[in-house]
Each structure stands twice: as C-alpha cells, then as structure tokens.
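Researcher: Please translate sequence to structure tokens.
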Amino acid sequence: MGNMIARVAKKPGLWKKVLIFFSLVGPGVITGSVDNDAGGITTYSVAGALYGYNLLWTLIPAFIVLLIIQEMNARMGVVTEKGLADLIRENAGVKVTFFHFSWFTAGGYKQYDDRICRGRGQHGDISCS
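Model: Translation complete:
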C-alpha cells in the first residue's frame, strides 16, 4: 500500500501540466494575438477571400527576414547590453534617432487609424477621410 501512495504522489497532476504548458507558451500566445482586433480580422478575411492561397508563398521570405532581424538585434543587445534605440543614438546621433522613431510612431498611428476607419467606416458608424 505504501508503494502505491508513493507512485501516485510522484506523478504530476493535470493542473500542474497545464500550468507548465501555459507558462512556457503563454507569452507567445499573448504576443501573437495582440494584433487580432476587429479591423485586423476584417482585413485578413477580405484578403483571404480575394486571394485565397495565392499569397501564401510570401510567408517564407517574410519569416526569413524577421528571423534574421530578430537574431541580429538580440545579438547586438546581448553583446552591448543596450537597446536598439541606444545603439542608433550612439551611431547616428540624437536628431536622426528622434526622426526615425517619430516616423515609426506616426506610421503606427496611421495604420491604427486606417484599421479603425476600415472596420467601422463600412457600417457608417464614423466618417473617415
């Protein structure tokens, strides 16, 4: 009887397995689902309906480019112990860094605005110009 209790105690429970799984996969799932808002899902659905699988080949070069850029930035961060903005500022100056990051921020807001207008403008809720 003692051996049976010892075996049961050593076996990890279902909740422990689930907790370990989500602790490993959780950040990736959260990061991957950040951009899945109403405008994004509408865009993906319309693109899928129009093009089907014809643009699927673009995932391969996009993945390769993203992999190279992420690896390069991670290596620079590990070696220099600085972020990308710090490295750009040191090599190009404050004005160039400010211009680039202002440009990226404005592009992000423009993309967000386009998605809002695309998602809601079709239903007449808001007027987008």
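Researcher: Any highlights?
Model: The chain has a mean pLDDT of 78.
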